[in-house]
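Here is this case:
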Amino acid sequence: MERQVYPTLVRDSKNSQSSLQRLFRQYLQSAPAVKIKSKSRVHLLIDGTYFSNGLCLILYYDHDIRYVQLYRETNKEKMRDIKEDLQNLKVLGVDIYSVTCDGHKSILSAVTKVYPEAIIQRCLVHIKRQVKNYLSEHPKHPVSQELLRLSKEITRIETIEQSNQWLLGFKRWYDENQAYINEKSINQETGWDWFTHKNLHLATSLIINAIPNMFHYLDDPAIPNTTNRLESYFTHLKEKLTLHRGLRLPSRKNFIKWYLYFKNQNSK
């Protein structure tokens, strides 16, 4: 978990460098399994991150006890895999009360199928970030500028009254600009059409689709409204893994598993 070079490890452990290297190789040939720690009324964060070699790590993180209940190393966030993971949690008796996620279709579909009564909370930070990615930091058109301003307010909403005010503001903006948002261009030769202001339409659709699951945390403060905790988790893991760029893929995978194991030891 810390950055230490061999001379320091040799000095502190009283072992030779070759002995330490042999020990590390033994560790990275296998890894400990993660054990289920909490089963009742779980507030789960689900998110995935990608590494430079195409490896995708999906975490099922218990927000209340700060513990990874399950993980999967794969190459893509696939509905089939996520569904299987959730079914395994269900078989093990884990009662998932809420799931906070970035809105990836695979996650939404899997949760709906396996835990149909679980509350799905969309990550507000992801919504805000994705809208900015679509519109850019400084959009030129006033319609896009106003949507960007509205999106920045999302993470500051703390009461139902504020959410109602925001929803009214968004509806007013949409009603006034609906024709512009949905304007289409047509290729006269082929008859194909597309949204003229594609990124604005994408950003608007993102928010509209997210609205039903944006404000559950206001009814129940125990529900996390972002996956930020996993974002910092992933960042720290990648920093540690960068120090060991020479590891082959099987050893990298086991390094990640050991990392998860030690991080879990520090949970509540």
In short: The two ends are 18 Å apart (CA to CA). DSSP finds eleven helices and seven strands in the chain. The chain has two domains: 29-123+226-268, 124-212.
